[in-house]
Amino acid sequence: MMQESRGTILIVDDSADMLSILNEALTKAGYSVFVAMDGLQAISIADSITPDLILLDALMPHLDGFDTCVRLKQSDTLSNIPIIFMTGLSDSANIVKGLQLGGVDYVTKPVKIDEVIARVELHLMQSKQIKRSVNVLNEVGKNAFISDLSGKINMLSAGAKSLLNDADNSQILRDGEFANLVREWRDSQPRADLPVILKKLSSSLSLSIVSLLGDDEIICKFINSDVNVIQSSLKEAFGLTERESEVLVWLTQGKTNHEIADILSMSARTVNKHLEHIFKKMMVENRIAAVSKCFKVLNAS
After folding, report:
1. Which CATH number fits domain 227-300: 1.10.10.10, 1.10.510.10, 3.10.450.40, 3.40.50.620?
2. What band does 69 get if pLDDT is binned at 50, 70 and 90?
3. pTM for this one?
4. Of 170, 164, 135, 156, whose CA–CA distance to 220 is shortest?
5. What CATH number belongs to 8-135?
6. 174: helix, coil or strand?
7. Among 4, 38, 54, 123, which is least packed by CB within 10 angstroms?
8. Contact predicate 163/172, CB 8 Å
9. What CATH class does 141-224 carry?
10. How confident is the model at residue 1, as a pLDDT?
């Protein structure tokens, strides 16, 4: 029975002997291996097979490893492939250059096979974790990010990154306030399936925890907290009347029945009646379940 490949490795080096040595070692270690003898050939092969990792010689004729790395990083489909530079250069300037251009690591020649395999295994594992995180962010939608339970942000979607570039929004991170909010949320032993509003950043933007991701990460998202936008989204999602959607939107803001009655100039009894109809349309039994369902709708938008 053929053993399943541990991953696809592209080795790029102008030395046939080096290609042969690495090809044999990595194939024996269970990897599928492709080889290229120059940068242009490497880019062509990478376009065809999208390898899981690239071992790239720094010094080659025609197109060296540094320029090859730059071109690979300019490709939407190839930019996230981890690149390990191989170089005989011992000076730190060239090592730093490779890392600054997007390389994740380096090994020096003559290469030590055990070291190469160890580094390949490490970066493939990290690459798989990154791919998992990217897939999660894509599923959650725009404006999402992943944080650990200490409040350290591990990955941002493009939308979330753009919002954090805003000085007012990024203040919550610079001051460590986000870490404190996450700690309070964690200490409250929340239900993993119940999204919560952590922080209202402005009149139209809130920060929400969507769910746990594994044992040590959480998925967060910036959501529009403009009352009119929320009302419109909930009205459409649950088939509510205008008045019912008004009641529900204030329920998501944490208001009590009496507070909702005051805001909407109606009696608390009328609010209760509306909530009975709302819960029936939403197919839920209580306020907590209703709010949870509302946040799932808002987080998906």
Report:
1. 1.10.10.10
2. very high
3. 0.59
4. 156
5. 3.40.50.2300
6. helix
7. 4
8. no
9. alpha beta
10. 47
